[in-house]
Amino acid sequence: MKILVCVSVTPDTTSKIAFKDGNSKFDDAGVQWIINPYDEWYSLVRAIELKEKDASISIHLVTVGNKEAEAVIRKALALGGDEATRINAESNDSYFIAAQIADIANKGAYDLVFTGKETIDYNGSSIGGMVAELMNAPYISLATKFELNGNIATVTREIEGGEEINEVVLPLVVSCQKGIAEQRIPNMRGIMAARTKTLHVVEPIVIDALTNVVNYEMPPAKAGVKLVDADNVAELVRLLHEEAKAI
């Protein structure tokens, strides 16, 4: 069985966010890049857990990005990926990215494709569904549990007020969230092995992007907090009526 894990490279959450060129581009100067946590902690680790139960499973990684992404992808290989492919392109368009991934998935005849539920930079949560459509495969989003029995997957996802359990015949695309696996840290053996694992670089297929970024805006600065004495109920009521904004 072959599993393809989609990996996005994102800014560390501690990075200072800024924009340039009239707020039309993200300023990556001094930014620390990491594996998107939903891809690393959940989809990749769940794939590794499946391989630990069945040694015949192979785990391949795929990312869309420039050469700078390779150092981050090596970390994913250190965790337990067998090989990786970097599609040599940069884009903020979800369709463009999904089409590149789906092309790799179709050519590689993968049985299972894992994505994180979203990336922590754009929070679009759209790649998985697009990849599934372009593969003509079923798609289950926001999975919290995943089990395999031969070529049948049992996938649990949260819904309003409960859980939904699906049984699906592979091939399948699944987006993963908290609950499906627990975070792991690469060990020294994995780090050393990752240096020699195969990292393919391929050129993107020709796809027209459907969207483009016009400009970025920072959120408004947080307002100060007003403290009201516990005995001054009248002032609290006044502030709630006159100054508090509806959320």
Fraction of residues in helix: 25-40%
Strand content: 25-35%
Q: From the structure provided, what is the oligomeric state, counting identical versus distinct chains?
A: single chain
**Spatial order of the strands in the main sheet?**
11-10-9-12-8-1-6-7-13
The tally of domains stands at 1
State the end-to-end CA separation: 48 Å
Which ranges are low-confidence, i.e. pLDDT below 50, for 5 or more consecutive residues?
Answer: none
CATH topology: Rossmann fold
Helical segment count: 6
Order of helices and strands: EEEEEHEHEHEHEEEEHEH
Structural class label: alpha/beta
Largest sheet: 9 strands, mixed
The CATH architecture comes to: 3-Layer(aba) Sandwich
Task: Please give a structural write-up.
The protein is α/β, with parallel strands linked by helices. It has one domain (2-217): Rossmann fold (3-Layer(aba) Sandwich), CATH 3.40.50. The protein has helices at residues 37-53, 70-79, 94-108, 127-135, 188-194, 233-242; strands at residues 2-6, 9-11, 19-20, 25-26, 33-35, 58-65, 83-88, 112-116, 139-149, 152-159, 162-169, 172-176, 199-202. A nine-stranded mixed beta sheet has the order 11-10-9-12-8-1-6-7-13, with helices on both faces. The protein has a two-stranded antiparallel ribbon with strand order 2-5. Strand 3 and strand 4 (25-26) form a beta hairpin. The N and C termini lie far apart (48 Å).
